[in-house]
Amino acid sequence: MFDLKPIWENLSQQVIILLAIVALFLIVVGLVTQGFARTICTVLGVLVLIALILMLSDAEKIGNWIKDKVFNPSAGVILPPKGRIDVWSTTIQENLSSLSRFIP
């Protein structure tokens, strides 16, 4: 199996530097043409691209963190409020009976 991590680390640093140069160029062009709002939005877009590239270098750590936060095995079962249990079971039974029309 190929290990592309060193290539990604070198390439991502070069892309970040290139995007920073592009952002500086866009700022200068925006100041010259007096398109301030468009310049701010474009530079923010470039900064978001830089942030995404930086996040991709730690994608495995971020994925494990999200997995630990979302899929918490000790969270327990989500139950409806106490007074609404009959309404929920009735609704589920109605939905199941309406689905049985489509099942031969």
Compact description:
The chain crosses the membrane at residues 12-32, 39-57. The protein is mainly alpha-helical and 104 residues long.
Q: Topology of this protein?
A:
Elements (H helix, E strand, L loop, with lengths): L4 H29 L2 H22 L1 H12 L14 H15 L5
Question: What do you see in this structure?
Answer:
The chain is mainly α and 104 residues long. It has one domain (5-98). The protein has helices spanning 5-33, 36-57, 59-70, 85-99. The chain is elongated. The two termini are 49 Å apart.
* Global morphology: elongated
Helix content: over 70%
- Number of DSSP E strands: 0
Low-pLDDT parts are: none
What is the element string, with H for helices and E for strands? HHHH
Major sheet details: none
* Number of structural domains: 1
> Tally the helices: what do you get?
4
Distance between the terminal alpha carbons, to the nearest Å? 49 Å
The proportion of strand residues reads under 5%
Structural class label: mainly alpha
What is the C-alpha radius of gyration, as a whole number of Å? 26 Å
Average of the residue pLDDT scores: 77
